[in-house]
Amino acid sequence: MKSNLTGLHHITAISSDVKRNVHFYTQVLGLRFVKKSVNQDDTGTYHLYYGNYSGAPGTALTFFPWAGLPRGRPGRGQAYATAFSVPATSLPFWQERLARLKVTTYPVETRFNDQVLPFQDHDGLRLELVASTEADPRPPTPSTEIPAEHAIRGFHSSTLALAETSATVHVLEAQMGYRLQTQAGHRARYTIAEGGPGTYVDLLTDPAIPRGLNGAGTIHHVAFRTPDDASQVAARQTLLEGALSVSPVIDRAYFKSIYYREPGGVLFEIATDQPGFAIDEPVETLGTKLSLPPHLEPHRAEIEASLPKLS
């Protein structure tokens, strides 16, 4: 039985300076700061979430910021780039905006049928804006910085850089239910469920890409979405039957998670859509307080004292 996955859930990256991180993703890209929490495996470190208004699955780019952490190097064996979906006519707006704000950008590429603007954040994290010819019905992320007609809709795709893809393809197809949509040159695109922006995983085998080195500006893991606890348990069983080493179910408060490393080296997570970020604060005020899972609440004072100020 194949897993009941429906696309990308969230993507988590590593950054350095926390204040620059908040500024870039809220003020430059216009994403909403939907959750201020901590890394549950290292409570002296924030876990920051940026997404659409509600932080819906498929929109949230999250960060573990470690002050002073040296830069890593995006490359083979890692999730290499994260692409956001924007309207088909929006790239000139973003080119002007990112140039004015002195964000490092690269020439627009034509990728399959879409125009793609690559750029990077202050840590060198590889990001892309995809002006897709496909319909993206997701609402724009409300922002005081970005007009709604040009605002980010959520993830378009995650690109994995790999030296060899056959074992990864087997996991995507046989254990996760993905299917090949198209390929050209060194890039193959896989999709799942009904397809479209927010579902795509691209496998990139460009030999010019060096092996990745972990550090600031690299991706920690890619999370895929599944509707509920029962579908997650079924997905875990399918992965185990495929001889993958899968973690037990871990309650992350806003979703439940299982983790495994695909054969190419990238850490994957499967996360439930429920209960979502509004479980412990109203949607209207998401991200305005430090949110802690119930088991960490008794340690709130100690945790707050150990975290750097965001303003």
Automatic annotation (TrEMBL):
Pfam families: Glyoxalase (PF00903). Keywords: Dioxygenase, Oxidoreductase. Its EC number is 1.13.11.-. PROSITE patterns: VOC. InterPro entries: Extradiol_RC_dioxygenase (IPR052537), Glyas_Bleomycin-R_OHBP_Dase (IPR029068), Glyas_Fos-R_dOase_dom (IPR004360), VOC_core (IPR037523). Residues 7-132, 154-273 form the VOC domain. The keyword Transmembrane helix does not apply. The keyword Cell membrane does not apply. GO terms for molecular function: dioxygenase activity. PANTHER family: RING-CLEAVING DIOXYGENASE MHQA-RELATED, RING-CLEAVING DIOXYGENASE MHQE-RELATED. This is Ring-cleaving dioxygenase MhqO. It comes from Lacunisphaera limnophila. The gene is mhqO.
